[in-house]
């Protein structure tokens, strides 16, 4: 190995160390920020609950924004503060929040919070992490009603819950997610309400067609 090659090899090794450290720092910062936002949401909510006056919450948030933004920046805008309250309302138990949104940015989270259906929200948050979706990709998937187009969404709630748990814990991709694309369904000549037997039969037929074309 030449001196130049050794230098390049050394550079690559150090680059890997730097990138790994940066990723760890980014993850730590993100987790601390989400934790901070949850605590802020909790604190604001508790203050709002002290009064039954109409519009009290709005006044509290407006006042806080006026004080926080000049000192700490746009991250504490009125809209963002309400997202923090919403996050606490949705996840009053901190561990549930950290378990579901681990690895996701705040921008991802505020796109997920408006989803009222818990399983639907878990579906998107899980795939965000597994498939490394950008915020834009997440928005596109939600807008295109990806969840509603999956076979998974038509299962009983307990089944959906178990399937998502299996995907999360075992990192095992399930067929109901693999065949979520409407173009795939069209290719397999399946309707939106296909059964498991229909799917198996369609896959077999597609394989036979492809094999015959190859002859």
UniProtKB/TrEMBL annotation:
Transmembrane segments: none
Domain YhcG N-terminal intervals: 14-149
Record-linked InterPro entries: PD-DEXK-like_domain, YhcG_N
Superkingdom of source: Bacteria
PANTHER family: NUCLEASE YHCG-RELATED (PTHR30547:SF5), UNCHARACTERIZED PROTEIN YHCG-RELATED (PTHR30547)
Name of this chain's protein: YhcG N-terminal domain-containing protein
Organism of origin: Candidatus Desantisbacteria bacterium CG07_land_8_20_14_0_80_39_15
Classification of source organism: Bacteria, Candidatus Desantisiibacteriota
């Amino acid at each position: 190995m030449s001196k130049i090659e050794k230098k390049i090899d050394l550079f690559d090794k150090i680059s890997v160390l730097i990138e790994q450290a940066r990723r760890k720092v980014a993850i730590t910062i993100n987790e601390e920020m989400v934790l901070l936002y949850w605590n802020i949401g909790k604190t604001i909510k508790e203050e709002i609950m002290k009064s039954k006056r109409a519009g009290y919450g709005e006044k509290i948030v407006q006042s806080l924004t006026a004080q926080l933004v000049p000192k700490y920046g746009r991250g504490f805008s009125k809209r963002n503060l309400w997202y923090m309250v919403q996050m606490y309302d949705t996840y009053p138990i901190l561990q549930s929040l950290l378990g579901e949104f681990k690895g996701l940015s705040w921008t991802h989270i505020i796109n997920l919070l408006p989803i009222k259906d818990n399983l639907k929200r878990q579906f998107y948050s899980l795939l965000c992490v597994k498939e490394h979706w950008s915020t834009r990709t997440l928005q596109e998937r939600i807008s295109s009603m990806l969840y509603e187009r999956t076979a998974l969404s038509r299962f009983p709630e307990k089944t959906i819950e178990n399937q998502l748990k299996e995907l999360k814990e075992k990192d095992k991709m399930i067929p109901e997610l693999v065949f979520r694309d409407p173009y795939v369904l069209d290719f397999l000549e399946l309707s939106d309400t296909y059964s498991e037997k229909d799917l198996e039969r369609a896959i077999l037929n597609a394989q036979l067609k492809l094999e015959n074309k190859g002859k």
